[in-house]
Design goal:
InterPro entries: GH, Glyco_hydro_30, Glyco_hydro_30_TIM-barrel. The protein is an alpha/beta fold and 177 residues long. Helices cover 21% and strands 14% of the residues. It starts with a strand and ends in a 17-residue tail after the last strand.
Length: 177
C-alpha cells in the first residue's frame, strides 16, 4: 500500500514529569509540510543488506551551563541528581530511560559558559604544548565522571566551540575567523 507524501504517520510524546513516556498520540489535525494539493505517491524500500550510514549513538551535549545546573542539583538534592542522570544515561532501565550512549563536550568556552576561555591561550603554540584543562570548570569533569559511572560505555566527543583568540582574525573568541 502507498502512503501519501507529507503525511504524519506517528507522533510520540514524553513529558518532563514522566507522566507520559513514549506515548503515541494521534494527530489532532493534518500537519502538512508543503502547499495543499494532490499528494504524490512514494515507495520507501528498506534493504536490510545495504548499509549507507552507521549510527554511533544517541545523546546530547554537556556544556558548562548544563554541568553547572546538574552540579547544583547534586549539591541540593543528591537523590534527584542521580535519578536524572539515570533517566538520561542508564542503559539498564529500558523504556524508563533515554539510554544516551553519546555525549558531546565543548573544549573551552561555548555560548553556554559563564566566561570566555580556551585551553591554550599561549599565542603561537601551534603544537599545543601549553594545552591545559585547568581553565575548564571543575564541576564539568565531576559530572562527566558521574555519568561514566552510570554508563561506562558512553562515547564522549570533545570538540572546540571556538579556536583560541590568538588563532582568530579578531584576536577574540567572539566573532572572527
Amino acid at each position: 500500500s502507498h502512503v501519501a507524501s507529507q503525511q504524519i504517520w506517528d507522533i510520540w510524546q514524553t513529558t518532563w514529569d514522566r507522566q507520559k513516556v513514549f506515548t503515541s498520540l494521534a494527530p489532532s489535525s493534518p500537519i502538512n509540510f508543503g502547499s495543499p494539493g494532490a499528494a504524490a505517491s512514494a515507495d520507501i524500500v528498506v534493504s536490510e543488506t545495504t548499509t549507507y550510514q552507521t549510527i554511533n549513538g544517541f545523546g546530547g551535549t554537556l556544556t558548562d551551563s548544563s554541568a553547572l545546573t546538574l552540579n547544583n542539583l547534586k549539591s541540593k538534592n543528591t537523590a534527584n541528581y542521580w535519578s536524572v542522570l539515570g533517566h538520561m544515561f542508564s542503559v539498564a532501565d529500558g523504556a524508563d530511560a533515554a539510554g544516551f550512549s553519546y555525549l558531546r563536550v565543548p573544549i573551552g568556552a561555548s555560548d553556554f559558559s559563564a566566561k570566555v576561555y580556551s585551553l591554550d591561550d599561549v599565542s603561537g603554540d601551534t603544537s599545543f604544548n601549553k594545552f591545559n584543562i585547568n581553565n575548564s570548570p571543575s564541576y564539568l569533569f565531576s559530572v562527566i565522571k558521574d555519568i561514566l559511572s552510570i554508563n561506562p560505555s558512553l562515547k564522549v566527543h570533545v570538540l572546540p566551540w571556538s579556536p583560541p583568540a590568538w588563532m582568530k582574525t579578531t584576536g577574540t573568541m567572539n566573532g572572527g575567523t
